Amino acid sequence: MVNEFYLIVLLPLAGFLVNGILGYRIKNEKISGIIGSGTVFLSFLITAVTFFQFLSFDPGNRTYTIKLYQWVSVDNFSAGISYLIDPLSLVMCLIVTGVGFLIHVYSIGYMHGDRGFARFFSFMNLFIFSMLNLVLADNFLLMFLGWEGVGLCSYLLIGFWYEKSFTGDAANKAFWVNRIGDAGFLIALFFIISNFHTLNFGTLFGILKTTPVNTGLLTATTILLLVGATGKSAQIPLYVWLPDAMAGPTPVSALIHAATMVTAGVYLLARCSLMFALSPITMELVLIIGSFTAFFAATIAIAQNDIKKILAYSTISQIGYMFMAMGSGAFSSGIFHVTTHAYFKALMFLAAGSVIHSMHDEQDITQMGGLKNKMKVTYLTFLMGAIAISGIPPFSGFFSKDEILSGVFAGGNYFFYILSLITAFMTAFYIFRLISLTFFGHSRYDTETIHPHESPKVMTIPLIILAVLSVIGGFVGLPQVVGSNLIENFLNPVFESSKGLLPVHELTSSVVILLIIISVIVAVVGIFLSLKSYAAGRKLKLAEGWFYRTVSNKYYIDEFYNFIIVKPIKRLSDLFYSFLDLNIIDGIVNGSGRFFLSLSTDWRKLQTGVIQDYAVISIAGIILILLYLILLV
User: Fold this and answer.
1) Residues in contact with 23: Cβ distance below 8 Å, sequence separation at least 6, in sequence order
2) Angle, CA of 123, 129 and 135, to the nearest 5°
3) Which of 102, 210, 273, 546 is the 20 to 30 Å CA partner of 346?
4) What would the pLDDT profile of 42-85 be if each residue is shown by its tens digit?
5) pTM for the structure as a whole
6) What is the pLDDT of residue 539?
7) Residue 563: exposed, middle, or buried by beta-carbon count in 10 A (0-12, 13-18, 19+)?
8) CA pair distance 285, 279, nearest whole angstrom
9) Closest by Cα among 325, 385, 388, 398 to 352
């Protein structure tokens, strides 16, 4: 099946083309839904078969490249359409196709009746196609193609309901903020081409392993790659696009947060782990950005009331944990958290969509309450996701989060370890605040117009599957004191060279157990305080203070960016428009037009239609020519 692995990319592309070109002729929604979902499911099947094939290979020989054709060949530089199959890309493909398939199935119910049904599935398939190109590329150029593809798809899907102005604004915001990160990524590629004459991962990493490289060059290149990663994965300072991206349909939010877009930056760091390991300054910067983003976003999530925006800030915070892992050298732990996060975050977004769907598009959790008995499947599955993200054993989030915390502690980064513990407390607190205000207490909505009910099976079955994965998905990464960490053993060959450049810090079993106990206690305390404060409808006094107002307004970062960036650029553009464009450029163009219009008007007067006038003019012309020849020549 390895040789046919390229089909996992072509199948979603086929779904995109069929629904995109013929969708308006397909009158039955189910057909469009089956085409969109079926192509992704077939990709998942091929990926799963290939994954089990790889398990039978020798651990040191789990790399395979499929070369389709030569794309660019100029002098001593070349880049092809080639796919790299190794443990890292396989894990990512399983996430993209597996979780992506469940989101597609859920969308059949969620988007029922929408006039853009086929268009929606077309864009969703294109999203999967672009992400698969990104994670399978064996060179930076093809990765960048997928990188820009997911950016395009996010723009199309965030602004899917284009008749609403706020969705267009959110799509534009996502597009332009990501362009900043993409510019950094692109400049990094120019650095790599000019200094190493290749964009192929294998060739580049081979050079880095055997040839001394200028430290300054490597630091500059990795910082530029980090700029790209912070943009795509919504980290400080480029995180501001992701909360607004919730303007699109809820399945889009689930796909962006769990299976595509925001995981791209983490994947970039993992794929280029050798480059980052050779640059201690950048590694430290990754750790700092991840730690502060995780903490910062968690404080904002505590005070939000929009159910989707709470989950959006939660994603920003959880991606921060992944960056912390990468900055600590715990690359496998970071990818492990990408995996478990895909389960419980897709679950919670889709469950939130189920709530919104039932509440007639209401998203304010302060206007909900008492949904526990009216939406039992949605409630129980959402609860499974909440327990998982809080880090309670034996749910999946516990294992991956604990691996990250242990990696940060083992690296001697004690300040960041404490910061991550505080973030873990806030995570448990805000997610159970959401649970409490949504499902517990009395009804705070208009019971005469809103009648909550459970979603159809096409929406609840994906929730149940994701809930099961959120419960058991962490057992592939058991702590060493308990058992074998299967996912780390599987990924080790990819990160072996990188880890060899980093200092080794082994923790004793007693220290590991102590760290586990501390993290669980922190999560339990967060859950207890949240339930005590909100489950019965009570509010903390904190909600009335200045700090609560500050975090509820997201630290006024959007206003700050608007003041220092957006407004100056708009004023500058207005100046250029009113002075340069209108007066200079338009003045020249319009002035030229007016001049020739006036000239043609004057010359038109010569066209009298009288033969005698034309004869006089002709004779006068002949006389002038003769005078010129006689007098001057």
Assistant:
1) 32, 117, 118, 119, 121, 122
2) 135
3) 273
4) 999 999 999 999 888 887 788 899 999 898 888 888 888 999 99
5) 0.91
6) 56
7) exposed
8) 10
9) 385
CA distance 370 to 39: 39
- State pLDDT tens for residues 291-309: 999 999 999 999 999 999 9
**How does DSSP classify residue 445?**
S
Helix residue ranges per DSSP H, 359-456: 376-390, 396-410, 414-439
Q: What is the CA radius of gyration of the chain?
A: 30
- Long-range CB pairs of 20-29 (<8 Å, 24+ gap) are 20/118, 20/119, 20/122, 20/126, 23/117, 23/118, 23/119, 23/121, 23/122, 24/118, 26/118, 29/108, 29/112, 29/113, 29/117, 29/118
**Residue spans of the chain under pLDDT 70:** 536-544, 633
Distances (CA, A) of 575 to 571, 572, 583, 585, 590: 6, 5, 11, 13, 20
DSSP state letter for 84: E
Neighbouring CB atoms inside 10 A of 440's CB total: 19
Structure tokens at 339: 């995996």
Residue 537 has a pLDDT of 58
Residue listed under structure tokens 């960490």: 485
Query: d(Cα 235, Cα 241) in Å, to the nearest integer?
Result: 10
Degrees to nearest 5, angle at CA 559 with 554 and 565: 130
Place of tokens 């904002």: 300
